[in-house]
UniProtKB/TrEMBL annotation:
Belongs to the glutamine synthetase family. This is Glutamine synthetase type III. Residues 84-173 form the GS beta-grasp domain. SMART domains: Gln-synt_C. It comes from Christiangramia fulva. Residues 178-615 form the GS catalytic domain. GO terms for biological process: glutamine biosynthetic process. GO terms for molecular function: glutamine synthetase activity.
Amino acid sequence: MPTLRFQALKETLGRSAVKVDEPGRRSEIYSQNVFNESMMRQFLTKEAYENVREAIQTGKKIDRSVADHISTGMKEWAISKGVTHYTHWFQPLTGATAEKHDSFFEPIGDGTAIEKFGGGQLVQQEPDASSFPSGGIRNTFEARGYTAWDPTSPAFIWGTTLCIPTVFVSYTGEALDNKTPLLRALQAVDHAATDVCKYFDKNVKKVNSTLGWEQEYFLIDSALAASRPDITLTGRTLLGHSPAKGQQLDDHYFGSIPSRAISFMMDLEIECMKLGIPVKTRHNEVAPNQFELAPIFEEANLAVDHNSLIMDVMKKVGERHHLTVLMHEKPFAGINGSGKHNNWSLATDTGVNLLSPGSTPMKNLQFLTFFINTIKAVYDYEELLRASIASASNDHRLGANEAPPAIISVFIGSQLTKVLDELEKVTDGKLSPQEKTDLKLNVVGKIPEILRDNTDRNRTSSFAFTGNKFEFRAVGSIANCAGAMTVLNSIVAKQLRDFKKEVDKLVKNKKMKKDDAIFNVLREYIKKSKKIRFEGDGYSEAWEKEAAKRGLSNNKNTPTALKAQVSKKTIDLYKELEVMNKTEIEARHEIELEEYAMRIQIEGRVLGDIARNHVIPTAIRYQNLLIENVRGLKEIYGEDFARHGKEQLEILESISSHIAIINSKINAMIEARKVANKIEEVEERAFAYCDDVKPYFDEIRYHCDKLELLIDDELWPLTKYRELLFTR
Ligand code: ADP
Ligand code: MG
């Protein structure tokens, strides 16, 4: 009897790599489907073009009268590329992206029709968005929400649709999406960083936050993925015994890429090129069938959009190759999970990376200023940073079976540690000319050299300095980077504001020279933020103990971690920076808790169904085979049968006991769900799912996995780990 598993395996084994043709030089197709500057210059009037540029550079609103010119130009460009529809493309709080396509086509009443796309349609739209999560915002304020064009992220074409990146807000202005708070945070960090830059270079007018993400993912044959209800419904396997061979040989990492995967990657890269996503790196990751993709870094808002877009494009391209892309943080137990490293820095409009040391002592002091302020920001807001990456799926990585830990710490390497140790000794008050010269020559001046041969790497740190940027490693692979980026840029903005105030105060009240004041404030910051710095093994138990002693948080699950999102400290922070008001903050908290509870609920249901409808019936079928066998033995050997059938009888009993436990645990889990579902208060409900429902998963799984080992392979209905991970 061919089960879905065997059908899927047969289908998979018959596949070969889909041929992909390079459409020419990559540099030639780059950005071909993007309404970028060069296209704008070509398709817009001079006035319209200047307006968009100004909007991009200064955030100035676009004039309604000009909007009509822009939309017309955009439409002409799009139609010249075969486009028929347009959509406002936005990022609701579901974490996915959303779009509703409308046609350009418009009948004009005399039996003919035209293509129309007005300024109004470009600038603002009202999607029927009542089923997007709003955390009650729209109930409390206005029923409707609208999307509005974000000119800082260029429009692009996917298929035959013109996609216009937009924010999604309620009529009273509350953010209903991921992009709005991010844009506000980016503006806050721009202003704060520009002000601090002026100590060093008066010409700086704008500071951009930069983001280079690295996306990890698994590729599984789509027939195999479809044969597993848990993968289909939850994006991960809820059961499955570890294969005899896992990743212990390290023979996949950076190894030669399997041919079907390489076809997929080529195809994906070509699509990315056309969409203006500057993908650069591709390679195998640690786990079997795990891969990574990384672009060159970009301005953070654009990079976030590109990541959201690429996650979508990956799925679509995967379909062409009969591959399912698993973006979940932990699709397989016992095997490395996936993350999305967020490489972050700040760059001035004069072309300086503020986390890269420069050629003069002054530039290096500027580097140190941004470097130390970032460390201090992370120290002060480590819990909020932890909250920004919390989700049901990322809980499987953070603080669970694998790295990085749920503790946020900063790694800077031994050389920079020495520099900070030196700076800690700076005189309190005015510095003598001798001390200053000495500092400039021997400490600050040495930094470029130090970093040039900085080979210090620590893979276990959640927030590591890697030469010219910080790398936030704990972000989940399926997450929208906007969450982490909103927090990181906000806390650094806040820190830089405080820094400026303190320096200015010393200059004014203590009559200090500017750089004396900077050294003084930095010295105090180094002392104050020391506890967040950790150079050792972040995965060790010793670090957990040490971190607890230092008073660092170690929030191991989502409901606990999310508390920091609504603390007074967070509310004050976002209020000061105008990133989010209390309503928006609380709405997000509610949405994330709700989502957490729902995810665990769905997983619980799916696990219960599979265990009951797939595993137990299979176990019973196999038991029947054994019973038949024993009965036969009895016929042949009479009372002596027990000697010949000893093993069979043992297996029979063992199966019975596993079945009994699975069944009773499923019942108990269902009861726990019923109790949880009755809880009105969302945080309490999330905790009930976390503490009372989720623990059953491991117990049920353990016994199902034992059965997998006992039962005849031919009867087992669920595609096994070795098949999912090693079939290519
Ligand atoms: P790895 O972490 O694998 O060792 P690299 O050090 O080569 O990788 O860089 C990783 C990522 O860092 C790349 O995706 C790159 O785009 C990004 N990156 C490099 N410089 C910056 C920067 N100034 N700002 C943000 N991201 C950056
Ligand atoms: Mg990395």
